[in-house]
Amino acid sequence: MSELRISSIETRGVPGKKRYAMVIDLRRCIGCDACMVACKAEFDVPLGVFRTWVPYKVIGKYPTVRKMFLPRLCNHCDDPPCVRSCPVGATYKVDDGGFVLQHYDRCIGCKACMASCPYNARFMLPKHRTYTDITRVVDKCTFCHHRVTQGLVPACVQTCIGRSRIFGDMNDPSSEVAYLVNTMPTQVLRPEEGTKPHVFYIGADRNHTEIGRKIYDPQSAIELERDVYNRNHS
Amino acid sequence: MLEFNIFHLMPWSGAYAIYFFVIGIAAAMFFFSALSWYRPEFQTIRTQSFNISFILLAAGGLLLIGDLTQPLRFLNIMNPAYLNFSSPLAWGGLNLISFGIVSILYFLVMRKNDEGNSRKLAVVGALLALGLPIYTGFDLTVHQNRPVWNTPLMPVLFVALSLLSGAAVATFIAKGEKLLVMLRRFMLWSAGAVAAMLVSLLGTTAYGGSGSELTFMFMTSGSLGAIFVGLGILAGTVAPIAVLLTNSGKQQGGMMLAGALLLVGGMALRYSILISGQIVQTYY
After folding, report:
1. Rounded distance, CA B91 to CA A88, Å?
2. Which of A59, A152, B91, B237 has the most CB atoms within 10 Å of its CB?
């Protein structure tokens, strides 16, 4: 696999280095949103913004229809564009583990990292928060760095009732994630961006995960909600 | 993307387009002031164009700092321990600060009538001024996931837009037949270059992937159509070229009319290019 390593920042197959990844088995996701709730509780994530979220789409034709869920989060890319674009080094990649994290005290709020992320994984923290005094800087999923370094799995993985989310070290060939990625057909979101994501999906269909033509003529009710949201969060 | 999704905001709002507009004019006005040391027809606007450049540079700087969510941390961009040179914003910040320093020095030596040093600083300042639209273009170009932005055309387009907007402002303060002839040439050539680049930009956007194609739809027949096609292309590029090609376009009145249209077009194009690269992504 090392022949795929291009950028010096990548940790693919580097001996002695961990490379954490998540596999999300969409066949097992029931859309209970427990992962979103666990994440919100773990990090005091404010209203309106999410470190992980679960959009859905109704696919098929009546009577054979089903809801397809697509849990989303920061992909902790092996070659993350957000790290390149941050002018003050507030976004960085942890060498051992591959976590993409934020120095909150350095972030100037230019939002270049948000513009560069192909996955919309980053958001701006609002001015007021209930329990935490980190405000008005960019935030994102950390792969629960504080838990993983203590030998635990991320909060969303811990709480997943269908065991849809699996977490582990890709550089360890005996880990469950390495086994799944090596033996199952997996997909990553937007592979064409060259970011080499560390979130792998089982059962994701590109026809359903990408933007469709429907957004050109969105439902007016949704746009009304979006306007209200933009007013409250800009 | 899906039937239920959370809402995503556009990271860069319209305020950035105003910054691009202001800083583009500031760069071109400094260039005209610098040119006055080498081309006599520009001598009459040497001080005035520098003053406009400096005021707009200060306004642009404040606008940029004000748009940060942590405005006081703009000093971090000058901290060598923090600077990340793989980011075009870091280079842009340094370019902006250097240009500000050179502008102040240029003002001081110009007041002393020190021609030798003024000429040298004029060249250095003009090169740094050229860097401003180039870096703003690179700011957009480097985001490989953004339709419209991710093209090598962007820095060149921003240089042409800067020259065009600067020449348009200069027609309002210009005195003398020879200067007007030069400014008319600047406006015609840069507007022609912008028009050619827009054709290329629209072509590559329309034939891109699904995201690019949707962006093309938003830019032409969607929510940005009136601004991009109406104000940016028709009223702001095609109409002023047509005015400049007529006989009245050779008089100052006609040139001022074309200049006003070019300024409207320059702002509309910058705004629609900035926003169009972000619309589709908010649905992902």
Report:
1. 11
2. B237
Q: Which CATH number fits domain A2-75+143-233: 3.20.20.120, 3.40.50.11480, 3.30.70.20, 3.40.50.970?
A: 3.30.70.20
Exposure b/e, A205-231, CB count within 10 A at least 16 = b: eeeebebeeebbeeeeeeeeebeeeee
**Domains of chain B: total:** 1
Rounded Cα distance between A51 and A152, Å, is 18
- Going from the C-alpha of B67 to that of each of A109, B58, B71, the distances in angstroms are 8, 14, 7
| Residue B95 zone, left/alpha/beta (φ > 0; ψ -120 to 50; rest) | alpha
- Kindly tell me the sign of the dihedral angle through the C-alpha atoms of A128, A118, B7, A145: negative
Chain-chain contact of B4 with A88 (C-beta, under 8 angstroms): no
Rounded CA separation B268/B235 (Å): 10
CATH number of the domain where residue B100 is located? 1.20.1630.10
Alpha carbon distance B155, B162 (integer Å): 10
Distance (Å, rounded) from C-alpha A27 to C-alpha A71? Answer: 12
- With CB atoms and an 8 Å threshold, state whether B214 touches A194: no
For residue B272, give its domain range: 14-283
Domain segments of chain A as ranges = 2-75+143-233
3-state class of A176 per DSSP? helix
Question: How confident is the model over A32-80, as pLDDT tens digits?
Answer: 999 999 999 999 999 889 999 999 998 888 999 999 999 999 999 999 9
Is B145 in contact with A190 (CB distance < 8 Å)?
Answer: yes
A-facing residues of B in 42-101 (CB < 8 A) are: 68-70, 73-74, 76-77, 79, 82-84, 86-90, 92-93
B284/A119 CB distance under 8 A: yes
Question: What is the ipTM for the molecules in this complex?
Answer: 0.93
A154 DSSP assignment: P
Of B6, B88, B144, the CB nearest to A53: B6
Q: How far is B255 from A160, CA to CA, in rounded Å? A: 67
The model's pLDDT over A137-185, given as tens digits with 9 standing for 90+, comes to: 999 999 999 999 999 999 999 999 999 999 999 999 999 999 999 999 9
What's at A187, amino acid-wise? Q
| Substitution target from A207, A211, A226, A227 for chain B, most B beta carbons within 10 A | A211
DSSP string, A100-129: EEE-TTT-----HHHHH-TT---EE--S--
